[in-house]
Amino acid sequence: MNLLSIELFCLVAEHGSVSEAARQAYVSQPAVTRHIQALEAVYGAPLFDRHDQGLKLNTYGHFLYPYLKAIIADHRRALEAFQSFLKSSPEPVKIGATRTIGEYWLPYFLAEAKARFSWFSYAVHIDNTEKIVEALYGHGLDLAFVEGTLDQDDRLLVDIYAVDELLLVARPDHPLTQKTHVHIKDLEGETLIVREEGSGTRKIVQSHLEEKNIWPLLQTLSFDSTQAIKSAVEAGLGISFLSATIVARDTIHNMLKAIPLQDLSIQRPLYLVRPARRLVMPHVKELIDFILDENVVQRILPVVVSASIAPQQRAEDDVHLSVLSMDGLQA
């Protein structure tokens, strides 16, 4: 016995018609009949008298009707009360983010989300792509923002919400910054500062450089923090590929210099990821819809870049920044 069986019993009792009950409940007439028969089997007695004009409650049906009607009413009241409870006291939304997103973009997103959903609270976990995906598998996160490559996996729902460009950067006095044209082969023997193993950014950079047959010809130095990589490049320890968004301030203030490569451009999709086989709480679904349906990213990213650049220099300098966009990509 289930709630649908009880609801269909009440509809047939009130309308005296299987077809009308089926229409109101959006099920087939045979389905209504099966549910009524199942209910009669539970109680061990017929509940309707069958007439040419339709069905009418018999003595047993009349006895049961107020009890079953009360169950439906109690369920509706419970549902309304529970929805109100969820809205007033929702569990924190557990959000995961890979390091570049979590350290630079996510705070601005949370400010926007807080303005829209003031009653929500959040718990944020920042790590590399591999660890974030593991947390999604282990039910430790409701959703995650990931910048790394993702393998096909039917346990995850994945949407592209933006696209980022990785720029080759160096200290302004690095020899490569003095060249008019820089090609991949010019990187041979350089020290490339990269993220740790398991980082999505590292996988993307390494994959592109392996395709160009330059990866084995580089010295590598790894850090598990984007900020540490920026500091290492500024200190002259080597060169690195970093998100154009997060080096905006550094290039404007001449702490880093972007080096255009003639024969390589690295763009990467950014993903919104969540578990595929888990019931999504209503407030989490609201947040997901907010991210995907209202182009919140397109409103936030110009703010992130703008916040990285001194006000007087925004108007004076013509700097090419690759801001996140959805151009040319679909999930």
UniProtKB/TrEMBL annotation:
<protein>
    <submittedName>
        <fullName>LysR family transcriptional regulator YeiE</fullName>
    </submittedName>
</protein>
<dbReference type="GO" id="GO:0000976">
    <property type="term" value="F:transcription cis-regulatory region binding"/>
</dbReference>
<dbReference type="InterPro" id="IPR036390">
    <property type="entry name" value="WH_DNA-bd_sf"/>
</dbReference>
<keyword id="KW-0238">DNA-binding</keyword>
<dbReference type="Pfam" id="PF03466">
    <property type="entry name" value="LysR_substrate"/>
</dbReference>
<dbReference type="GO" id="GO:0003700">
    <property type="term" value="F:DNA-binding transcription factor activity"/>
</dbReference>
<keyword id="KW-0804">Transcription</keyword>
<dbReference type="InterPro" id="IPR005119">
    <property type="entry name" value="LysR_subst-bd"/>
</dbReference>
<dbReference type="InterPro" id="IPR000847">
    <property type="entry name" value="LysR_HTH_N"/>
</dbReference>
<comment type="similarity">
    <text>Belongs to the LysR transcriptional regulatory family.</text>
</comment>
<dbReference type="Pfam" id="PF00126">
    <property type="entry name" value="HTH_1"/>
</dbReference>
<dbReference type="InterPro" id="IPR036388">
    <property type="entry name" value="WH-like_DNA-bd_sf"/>
</dbReference>
<keyword id="KW-0805">Transcription regulation</keyword>
<feature type="domain" description="HTH lysR-type">
    <location>
        <begin position="1"/>
        <end position="58"/>
    </location>
</feature>
